[in-house]
Structure formats: C-alpha cells, structure tokens
Amino acid sequence: MTKRILVLPGDGIGPEIVAEAVKVLDKLAGEGLDIEMDEGLVGGAAYDAVGTPLPEATLDMAREADGILLGAVGGHKWESLDIAVRPEKGLLGLRAELGLFSNLRPAVLAPQLADASSLKPEIVSGLDIMIVRELTGGIYFGQPRGIRTLENGERQGFNTLVYAEHEIERIVRSACDIAMKRGKKLCSVDKANVLECTELWREVATRVVEQEYPEIELSHMYVDNAAMQLVKWPKQFDVMVTTNMFGDILSDCAAMLTGSIGMLGSASLNEKGQGMYEPIHGSAPDIAGQGIANPLATILSVAMMLRYSLDQPAMADRIEGAVNKVLDDGLRTPDIMSDGMTEVNCEAMGDAVVAAL
Ligand code: IPM
Ligand code: MG
C-alpha cells in the first residue's frame, strides 16, 4: 500500500535541509519504496502566506499522512508576534492535534566526530542514549495559563504543570518498549522532591515497570542531578524518560554531548504509530539561505521514519550506512569541520549521501 508522506520545510534552514532529505526519499522511491509525497506550509512560512502558523489544509494533510517530515520552525522575524500565532505554535499544534505524545531523541556519537564534543573523548566515545520525552502534556499544554493583572496592578505570568496517570503510563510504556530492545535500563527523571505532579510521575513509573516490565532496571533521578550526570558520566544512561519541559532541556544537553546537534534526528509518535520526524536542531536563522547547513540530522530523521512509521528497517539501515560512509570519506559541513577533512555545503552533502546509497 502506498504510504503518504507530508513534507513541511518550515523556516530558516528548514527548506535547505529538507530538500536534501527529499532527494534521499526520491532515490529510495526509484528503487521501489512505495510513497507519495505532499508538501505543506507550517510555522513562520505559513504565517507569512496565510496568516496562521498551522493552516487547516496542513493539518488535514498531516492527519492523512503515515509520516511527516518537518524541517524547522521559527526565527527572529516572527519573535514579536503574539504567542498564539508564533511559528512554534505550528509545531505545538501538530503535536497536540495528532497526539504525538512520545518523542524519541537519540543522542548517538558518530565515532568519526568524537573530537567535535566539548567533553573528553573517553567520556563520550561510544555514547548512545535515547531520551524519551513526553510531548503533548505537562507545562507546555497545562491550563490555566497566561499573563494576568493582579489587584495591585502588577502583572503575573502563570503556567500549570499537570499530568494525568494515563499520560504518565503511556509514555513510560513507550520508553520501556524501547529499553527492551536496547540495554533494558530506564532512568525516569523528575523533580519529585518539590513538585507533586512529578511525585505522581515517579509513583506511576515505578508501578508500570514493576507490573509490566519486570526485566527492566528502573532508576529515578531528579532533573538537576540528571543534567549534571549527563555531563559528568553520560554513558551511565541507556534510556531516559521524562516530562515535556525537562525533556526539552535535557535533550539539548544530551545532543551537545555528541558535539554536533546537526547530526541528530528525532521521532514523535502517536498511539497509531503515525509519526512526525524532524532534526533536533532549530531553524538556525543566522545561517539560513547560505546553503551551508548540515542536512544529516534530517536525513537521519528519514531513517527513523522508515523504521518507525513505514516498516522499512532495511532501508533505514541503508541510510544510516550511507551517512556513515560519507563521514568515513571525510566529508564535513562547516558545523562539524575539522583538520584534514573536506568541507562541503548542504547540497553536496545530500548528493554524497544519495551516491553512497
Ligand atoms: C524542541 C523545540 C520546541 C520545544 C520549540 C521550538 C517549541 O525547542 O522541539 O525541542 O520547546 O518543544
Ligand atoms: Mg528544544
């Protein structure tokens, strides 16, 4: 059956990196991968075109898609807009509307790039962590929220951290399913010493693992300590599971351990296995339009799409193998450039991956 892929280039470097990832999909389509690709507007690009960061047409196509490939959203240009129509709302709206609650953010060190990390090679060599971030709940979506004026005339900003038990259960299960295919070690990150909401998180995580995944070795860590441990001794972690906001922060930290945020893809999945795939890095407005962005994170996101939503694990392996080959061949975009390597631009990197495929 033909699989539908919705391509959402978005803002900043989004269109450049997505174009290279689409070349990879085209190449596989030429070899029999049965897909149909549509393109849609999201983020600032959508706001500029039709006045909203998440047009109904995009949402309709997204609902029909088996996989969504997203570049990035946001940029200085839209920073002064009302929060309700900022580019980020396009992304958050897609997550919420499609129920993409499980966000997988791998932090894997490509051995060829060990020198790119700001940490000592012995700390990061062989690093392979999977952060599972809850993506449709918590303080990002909790009500009430807003900025109100108090009786004394002072303004007060407020947001709400909420998790219902079923939201905790399903994300912990999602993390456990992944841990079962890896090292069977799960670290649940919370702030249970201060926040009741995450006290419940800890309790539910413990129950789910004890009752449903007895083989998994579960540990708990406060988020401040987790941030420290990620930098101190990251290889102690296999799979980490945490709330929306803690996951936002820790996944950036984990990504930087690999030295190259331009190398990491991500998957956001719902209960039906539908998924949105995007690089972990943002829209990088400072280098947008120069053709020098690193397309590998987006290309590796395509590999995740093949694995998690299109049921094509062999093709996913091939993409990862091709990326490995171009790194072995010494090709580097500026963000991962080092002595003795060959600097290439975004397009040349994409072409090299296609050739290696
Ligand atoms: C991310 C980003 C988003 C988030 C922004 C762009 C809304 O930082 O995907 O990590 O906070 O979730
Ligand atoms: Mg983030």
Descriptive report:
The chain has 357 residues and is an alpha/beta fold. The chain has 2 domains: 1-101 and 270-357, Isopropylmalate Dehydrogenase; 102-262, Isopropylmalate Dehydrogenase (3-Layer(aba) Sandwich). The protein is built from 12 helices and 14 strands. The chain has helices spanning 14-30, 43-50, 56-64, 87-98, 121-124, 165-180, 196-212, 223-232, 244-257, 296-308, 313-328, 346-356; strands spanning 3-10, 35-39, 67-72, 102-108, 128-134, 146-149, 155-158, 185-190, 217-222, 239-242, 265-269, 275-279, 331-332, 342-343. The protein has a 10-stranded mixed β-sheet with strand order 2-1-3-12-11-4-5-10-8-9, with helices on both faces. Strands 6-7 form a two-stranded antiparallel ribbon. A hairpin with a 5-residue loop joins strand 11 (265-269) and strand 12 (275-279). Helix 1 packs across helix 10, helix 1 (14-30) runs parallel beside helix 12 and helix 8 runs parallel beside helix 9 (244-257). The chain is globular, with a radius of gyration of 20 Å. The two termini are 24 Å apart. The model has no long low-confidence stretch (mean pLDDT 96). The structure holds 3-isopropylmalic acid and magnesium ion. 3-isopropylmalic acid binds at residues 74, 88, 91-92, 248.
List the topology elements:
Elements: E1 3-10, H1 14-30, E2 35-39, H2 43-50, H3 56-64, E3 67-72, H4 87-98, E4 102-108, H5 121-124, E5 128-134, E6 146-149, E7 155-158, H6 165-180, E8 185-190, H7 196-212, E9 217-222, H8 223-232, E10 239-242, H9 244-257, E11 265-269, E12 275-279, H10 296-308, H11 313-328, E13 331-332, E14 342-343, H12 346-356
Parallel strand pairs: 1-2, 1-3, 3-12, 5-10, 8-9, 8-10, 13-14
Antiparallel strand pairs: 4-5, 4-11, 6-7, 11-12
3-isopropylmalic acid (IPM) binds next to α4.
